[in-house]
Design goal:
By secondary structure, the chain is of the alpha/beta class. The protein has one domain: 2-Layer Sandwich (Transcription Regulator spoIIAA). 33% of the residues lie in helices and 28% in strands. The protein has four helices and seven strands. The strands form two sheets. It has a five-stranded mixed β-sheet with strand order 3-4-5-6-7. A two-stranded antiparallel sheet has the order 1-2. A hairpin with a 5-residue loop joins strand 1 and strand 2. Helix 1 packs across helix 2 and helix 2 runs parallel beside helix 3. The longest helix has 11 residues. It is globular and about 30 Å long. The protein starts with a strand and ends with a strand. 27% of the residues are buried. The model has no long low-confidence stretch (mean pLDDT 91).
């Protein structure tokens, strides 16, 4: 994981997960999405990493936009998997996965259970 310096000298994750209030059904992923980023999101939601998917789904998240993500690890995959059951009978839509994130979804077989759509679709 890469971290970036903050003005106070502390380190923060190089990625970000957030829901844009203008698009509340979309979880936006930016940069490197790893355990630190997922942990930060879970803390913002007031739950642990396991409960984050349930809370996001209950809040109406129907899509995860990976178009600005450069890396996803197993904790990011676990977050996707934890949101997906709450979308049934629909599948969780994952938009814009390319490069390493797309390869990770394909190698793990999650491309078969998630609805992968191109960024512009």
């Amino acid at each position: 994981m890469t971290t970036l310096p903050t003005p106070a000298g502390a380190r923060r994750p190089a990625g970000r997960l957030h829901v844009d209030p203008a698009r509340p059904a979309v979880l936006l992923a930016e940069g490197e999405i790893d355990i630190d980023v997922v942990h930060t999101l879970a803390g913002e939601l007031g739950v642990d990493e396991v409960g984050a998917g349930r809370v996001l789904a209950a809040a109406g998240v129907e899509e995860v936009d990976l178009s600005a993500a450069t890396f996803i690890d197993s904790s990011a995959l676990a977050l996707l998997v934890s949101i997906a059951p709450h979308r049934r009978p629909d599948r969780l839509r994952v938009r814009g996965a390319t490069g390493a994130p797309l390869m990770t979804l394909q190698v793990t077989g999650l491309d078969a259970v998630l609805d992968l759509v191109p960024a512009g679709a």
